[in-house]
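Late entry, zinc ion complex.
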Amino acid sequence: MESRKSRLEFQMEEKKEKQKKIIIIVAVLAVLCVCAALVGYMMMQQSDDVDNPNAGEPVGTEVQNPDVQTPPEPLVPVVSEENSWMTRLVNSTTLLEEGYVPELVVVNSAGYKFDARAAEDLKAMLQAARDEGLSPMICSSYRSWERQNTLFENQVVKQQNSGLPYEEAYEKAKTVVAFPGTSEHQTGLAADIVATSHQLLDDSQEQTAEQQWLMEHCWEYGFVLRYPKDKSEITGIIYEPWHYRYVGHEVAQYIHENGLCLEEYWQQVEEQEARLAAQNGTPKQYEQG
Ligand SMILES: [Zn+2]
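Prediction complete; structure with ligand written out below:
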């Protein structure tokens, strides 16, 4: 009797143990389910945040505007009429007039002159380079029409002295020195800058730490390297890793970010204006020169 009772008790205890185990398993499963649900909910919230920048803001405040279309492509920056001096194009086909003389200031102890409106940016750029332990040096800046003309006439005489008739000497001189009115140096916005330790005006100039720094940072001061390596066909000028041109901060940044030369920038401006004029139905006339 006693052994039977203990057997019954044993069976009862065994049953209770089983029930306990089941309860524990169910509880653990329940906890896991809750955890999984929580993790899932958090992940959904996160992905909502990524997709919807307004996540967390009150629902129902968003106003759908049927007039809003896809944003237009980024516009080419165009300076105001007042600042048109900054982006003025000067090259072999777009000449500066004989009388163009900007207001000039002397920018260094060597007496080099620059357009007064851009001189502070030039000085700031050179100072920033010096603060980096570099030694940039201006070796040419403003050059007057008269000076260009003298250089050109001297070159014609030189070619004549070498035996060429006048007309041929004249054409030959054009390939050696800038024809008066075609040099950017007349704008007062161009500076030839070299490393003090390496003053050669050739491709080797690009290897200097000074040029490396200037090429990387000049746009921050409103300048561009005017005659880049891969743009000679467009600029008509050989690669000049020393000739910097002021175009203003906004345009310099745009040219830098888009890898353009000034001719390409102007091409984009004209295309943009033609596009806008077509949209507005008023064709725009372009002045030549
Ligand atoms: Zn130059």
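Residues 140, 185, 190, 192, 243 surround zinc ion (CB under 6 Å). Will revisit in the morning.
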